[in-house]
Amino acid sequence: MTAYLVTVAILVCEAALIGLALNFQWGLAGLVNFGVVGFVAIGAYVTALLAPELGWLPAMAAAGAISAALSTGLALLSIRLEENYLAIVTIGFGEIVRLVILNEEWLTQGALGIADIPRPFAALGEAFGGDLVFIAFTGALLAIVFLGLEGLARSPFGRALRAIRDDATVTAALGKPVFALRVRAFAVGGAVMGIAGALHAFYLRYIDPSQFTPIVTAYAFMAVIAGGRGSNVGLLLGAGSIMALLEGTRFLKDFISAIDGVQLSALRLGLIGVGIVLLLILRPQGLVPEPRRRVADVLPGGRD
Amino acid sequence: MTDALSMTRRSVVAGLGALPLAAALRTPAIAQAADVPIGMVLPFSGATGAYGPAMKQAADLVVSKVNDSGGILGGRKLKLFIEDSETSATTSVTASKKLLEVNKVELVGGFWGSPEALAAKPIILAANKVQMLSCAANAVTEGDTKGLIYRLQAKSSQWGPAGAKVMEKIGARKVTVLAQQNPFIVAMVEPFKAEMARIGGEVIDVVMYNPDQASYRAEVEKAFGPEPDAVFVLPLLTDMVSISKEIYRGGFTSKVVSLGTGADAEGKFLQAVGPEVAEGIYHLQPAPPIESASYARFVKEMGAPEGTVFLFAGNAWDQICITALAMEHAKTQEAAVWTKSVREVCNPPGEFVDDVVEALKMIRDGKKINFNGAGCTCDFDEKGDSLNRSFYVQLIKDGKNTPFAVVS
């Protein structure tokens, strides 16, 4: 049981990393990114290709950097677009990445996927029961990213992004470089998604295009919406709840024998949907809403 | 967003603290001490969800058959846990992990799709349990398998040459290939080309398409456009339904040779497209022992019409049979031990037997048996791949699958 929970915890960490990145782009800066899975896939493939050559740390750094660079490129191309159009462009990007990975066999081995990706601290893992070392690594990584993004969200940069999200015109009128700030926000999110992809490759040790379907993007949005858009603490709770729903329902059929297993598999995905709908009805603002910051918090003596 | 609804740090901490309890609400279903837990990861949802239910039905049938006849290892019952792979490698990992850690299974079987099998392979091997496959990608049995992996299915590299032999039989020299981009099929293309070259034929074009396309018209026109003698169409079920309609609409005259995974799928293809569209399509799949009495019994127990060619359901059936027999032979449920008995009960020499209950009895009597299953002869080489795979070729005529040939 413990080892199974560790597996789930590792996947929660991965989902939380992706969610944090999306929360930064969409929750904080208001940039809809429906191509999340594309950036995760790029991170995973860069890691899978480079880790055997360069070792895990340079590979992971490269995954973050390349994903950030591509984010920047995509942002420069499309970020002036209105929200809905940005959504379409990013969906397109996600699909392009998937198709390139599937068809450029010389680089990605196409549909066959890449196996035997080395894991960080593999030797140490052997000695201390495998996944425990990896969960420590994953947890540390998540903590670093969480603190980093939380720091950014509290910084003047984060404040400017929130202002752009709430009203870009007013922010521009106040002299903030809206376009440059948006591009930077998008790049930061892309880097974190790339790192999440690296983690995915390290954990599964085998990646193929079928792992990077739009459902990854959907789970990330669910985590952000369930947790409370704009709140990083909420995101952690949201990612945890979504994974608890996904995995917890697995146990239903071990206990309910009245319903056939095949029906229950279908029902399970339905139940997850119902759970999310209920969550949104009961707590439309998310589990932990974004803290409402007052003028007084920023400017001592300012009026509320 | 009002202050009344905003969360205090205390309630957040309480919520965080309660999270692990969500999993503990239900105590895990561990099989009773006397039961022998075994598991399967099968697709019930996602792109290959159509194949799971028949496999589950077959597995359930054989488990109750073994249990009703008194079980194994002196009266212990098999307890089967089945998880949905959702046609996803990531889900297959958590599902396998759950089976291994929570249900403590000795076998993780099923595995319709190669990506699911490849992703689960490292964790099953790390746990020293047996993995049985119904998938085809060569890579699964490559590398170190610790003698724990068995494939009940033909390998991709065996499917390709079989296709070339069908081309030879129907007199097709100039052919094109229309193939889905997936690990099972990609690995067939090169062996097919090599075999075509050997028999003096020519592959003039290979057209690949992506799974889940909205339309296949461009690809169908590219493959059939040069008017080859025949087109080797390598699909799964859902895309073959669209492709065959596209071929019919286009009025192309080239012959169509396809795979049982797409153009039969245990009868589902004919149900989906009807007789006119399906007319004249050849399809091949690894042959179950069609002629044997035990196969006829298996089809009857599955509640299917006589003559149905089950491929994956037979694999699931056999996985359970082999596990039960090997455990009985090794006198233990310990996977690392009974894996050494698999070839003892499956490979010749030995007395031929194709009924699992009968076979269990013979093992108890100390006889050396050679078990033959519902999906294949169940003989394995040292890597765990199936030996002696012959392919059964059928031609769709007047809305029915009719036997055409057996190639090996």
UniProtKB/TrEMBL annotation, chain A:
The chain crosses the membrane at residues 6-24, 31-50, 56-77, 84-102, 132-153, 185-206, 218-246, 266-282. It is found in: Cell membrane. The lineage of its organism: Bacteria, Pseudomonadati, Pseudomonadota, Alphaproteobacteria, Hyphomicrobiales. Keywords: Cell membrane, Membrane, Transmembrane, Transmembrane helix. The keyword Cell membrane applies. Its main location: membrane. It is a multi-pass membrane protein. This is ABC-type branched-subunit amino acid transport system permease subunit. One of its GO terms (cellular component) is plasma membrane. It holds the Pfam family BPD_transp_2. The keyword Ribosomal protein does not apply. One of its GO terms (molecular function) is branched-chain amino acid transmembrane transporter activity. It comes from the Bacteria.
Automatic annotation (TrEMBL), chain B:
The keyword Signal applies. Residues 1-33 form the signal peptide. Pfam families: Peripla_BP_6. Residues 36-343 form the Leucine-binding protein domain. Keywords: Amino-acid transport, Signal, Transport. InterPro entries: BCAA_transport (IPR051010), Leu-bd (IPR028081), Peripla_BP_I (IPR028082), TAT_signal (IPR006311). GO terms for biological process: amino acid transport. The keyword Signal applies. Belongs to the leucine-binding protein family. This is Branched-chain amino acid transport system substrate-binding protein.
